[in-house]
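Instructor's aside before we start: the two examples that follow are unrelated to each other. I chose them only because their records fit on one page, so don't look for a connection. First example below.
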Amino acid sequence: MKYLVNSREMKLYDKNTTEHYKIPSIVLMERAAVSFVEELRRQRVDTSSVLLVCGSGNNGGDGLAIARLLLLAGSKVTVVLLEDGKKASPENQLQQQILDAYQCERRTEIPAGERYTAIIDALFGVGLCRNLNGDYKSLIEQMNALPGVKIAVDIPSGISADSGALCGTAFRADITITFAYEKIGLRLFPGAEFAGQIFVEEIGIERHSWLDKEPFVCAMEDEDLAFLGERIAYSNKGTYGKLLVIAGGINMAGAASLSAKAAYAAGCGLVRVVTPEENRVILQSTVPEAILSTYSAKNPEEACLIEAINWSDAIVCGPGIGTSRAAEQIVSCVLKNSSVPVVLDADALNVIAKDVSRLLRPHTELIVTPHLGEMSRLTGDSVSYLASRLLDAAGEFARQYHVICVLKDARAVTSIPYGRTYLNVSGNPGMATAGSGDVLSGIIGSLLVQGMQPKEAAPLGVFLHGRAGDVMAEQVGKRGLVATDLIEGIRKLGKKEEMRKKS
C-alpha cells in the first residue's frame, strides 16, 4: 500500500522535516534535484539541449538546481525565469545566485526558433490554487507546443494537487518526477491525463515527517494481493464461504451470471443466486456451479428470501433487479433481515434513493457501490459536481450513513467511515463496458465470505477488479474488452499470486 498526499499534507511534512528534524530546506531541494536528474538518466531522456522554465517558489528553486546539475553534466541549458528574482523564496534566490556563479544565463521568455530535446516544467508546485492566465497561460502553451520530451518537476503546472482539476491550462507532461509521495492530483482526472508516467523519488521526507498526521489517502498495490490468502489442503467448499447473490431481473440475467462467476473466480466456495423464475434456464446454463433459487417477478416470497439470507455469509444485492415493486420488497427484506455484510449495488441503490435514510436502519455492515449517476440519485447532487470532488463526496456519504462507500468513476474511491480513504489506481478505459460493475460486486462479495473484513474487502476488491482489467487489456486490447474478460483476468491474477507464494 502506498500513500498519496494533498498540498496541505505535503507542505506540513516538508515543514515538519525542516523544523522538527532540523534538515535545512536547501538540503531537501538539492536531494530533489539530484534524484530528478538521476531519474532522467534511468529513463534515458536525451538531455543534450534542455529548456527549464522556473517559477519564483521552491518548485522553481528545484528547477534551478536541476539546471545547474545538467549544465555541469555537459547539457546545453536554457533557463527561463519569468518573475523578478527579488520576489522569489529564499531558497530560490540562493539557487539563482549559485547558477549565476556558474555563469548560466537566465532569460525572461522562451527564445524563438530554438529546438530542445527536453522541456522541464518547474513553474508552479503543489501550492497552486488559482487559474492561470496572461503571461503564465501563454508560457505554458508555448512549452506544450515545443517538440521534445516534456518533464514536470513534482506536478505539472496548472494541475491542482488536491483534486486533479485543471487551473485554466496546464503543462502536458510525458513524465512527472515527484518527490516523497505521489500527489492526489496526479491520479485524479483530468490531472492524470497531464502527468504522463509518474516516478516518486525519496528526498528525506518520510513517515517520521508525519509526526501525528498520517496521510488521508492511500492506494493498493500489487503486493496487497497477498491478502487473498492461500487455499489450505484440508478444506471443502464451505471453507471458502457462502455468498448470496440477489441479482437479475427479467431480460437482465447477465448481471446475475457475471456477479456469480466473478465471485467464483475470486475464490468463493459456494454461490447461491436468487433471481426471477424467467432466468432459470439462462443461469443454469451459464453458471452451473451456482445454487439457484427463483421467485415470482410479481410477488417474491419473503420467507424464501429470509431463508436464503440466513444461509449466507455475505450478500450481494442489486445487479439488474430493476426498480419494480418486487425489487422494493427484496431490498427492504435484505436491509431488515441481514446480519452478515451486504454489498448494495446498481438497482438496489436506485431503490434506496427514494428513501436514503433506510441505510441507517440495518444492524450489519453495508458496502454501497454507486457510479456517479447512482450517487447523484442518492445525494441529489449533479454528476459534474460529484466528479469534481470524488474524495469528499465518498467520505461525506460514508460518514453520514455509516456505510463503506465505493464511488465508481475512472478513478474509484473507497471511503471507510471515520477511517481510511482509498484511491484506486488500477484499471483502464477498456473497463468502461456493460457488466463491469456486476463483476466488481461479485469480487467484493467473494472476499467477504472468505473472511476478509468489509473495510479490507472493498478497496482490495476494487484494486483486484482494475488489475484484472489491466491484465486482459494487454491480451485483448482496451477497445474490445468485455466484462467476461475481467473474470478470466481474476483467475490469471490468482494463479500469478499462487506462483509467487510458492517461489
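Example two begins here.
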Amino acid sequence: MELTNAGRAEVLTQALPYIQKYSGKIVVIKYGGNAMINDELKSAVMHDIALLSLIGVKVVLVHGGGPEISSMLSRVGKESVFCDGLRVTDKETAEIVQMVLAGKTNKDLVNLLGRTGGKAIGLCGIDGQMITAKVLNSKLGYVGEITNIDTKPIIDLLERGYIPVISTVGCDNEGNVYNINADTAAAYIAGQLKAESFISMTDISGLMRDKDDPTSLIKKINVSEAALLIKTGVIAGGMIPKVECCIEAIRQGVQKVFIIDGRIPHAILIETLTDEGIGTMFIG
C-alpha cells in the first residue's frame, strides 16, 4: 500500500526521537551473509547506511566476504577448508583473502554507497596497521587473533564526514597478512570506538530460546544471561561466536548491541529508527 503524504509525515515524525538520539553518535555495522550476496538486499543495506550518514549518524561498516573468497579459491582450483567455523588459511589463501576482501569486495561496497548518496572510503586492517594480529591457532594457518586496533584512521574519516568501509584483513610487524573473523573485528572496533550501538547482520531472525521455534525470539537479553545460555547449550553451534562477540562489545563499552536479520529489507532502519525494532538487543 502506497503511503499518503500525511502517512510519510507521520513516519518521519515517529523517527525524529531516534534521529535525535543517534545524530553525532557512532554506529558500527557488521555486514555479511545473505544480505551481501543478494543484489536487492545489498542495495537496501547501502541505502540505509547512506541515509543514516546523511542524518548525522557516524556509521562504520565492517564487512566479511566468505562466499566471494570461496568463489575465487574455486576459480584457482583451491578447496575451501573450514575448522570450527573458521577458514583454514595457508599463505596462498591469505593472499587471495587480501585480494578479494581489501580489493573487489571492499571497493564494490564503496562504489555502491557512493551511487546511493553516501561518502565512503575503503580501508583494510593493514592500512596504517589499523588491525594487528598474531596466529590464533597453528592448525588454522594465517587466521589472526587481534592484538591491537588503532582507531585513528577510522576517527579521522568520520570527522571528515566519510563512511569508513573496513575489510577485516590484519597484519603483524613481520609483514604477515592475517584473515580476521569479521564478527570479532567488528565487535573490537565498536568497543574501541565506544560506539552507541553495534549491529550484527546475520541470516537468522535473532537469538532463539528454541532454534526450531521462530516464535521463541529473545528480543532483549543482558550479557550475564547470554553467557548462561551458552553454558547450558541453548546457544550452540555457529551462534556461539556471534553471541560471544556481542557480549565482548558490551563489556568494552558499547551501549547497545543488536543481532538482526539481514534478509529483511531495510532491517537497519527498522532497528534504529522505529519503536518496533527487530532481532535481539544485548544490554549490559
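The CA atoms of residues 104 and 153 lie 21 Å apart.
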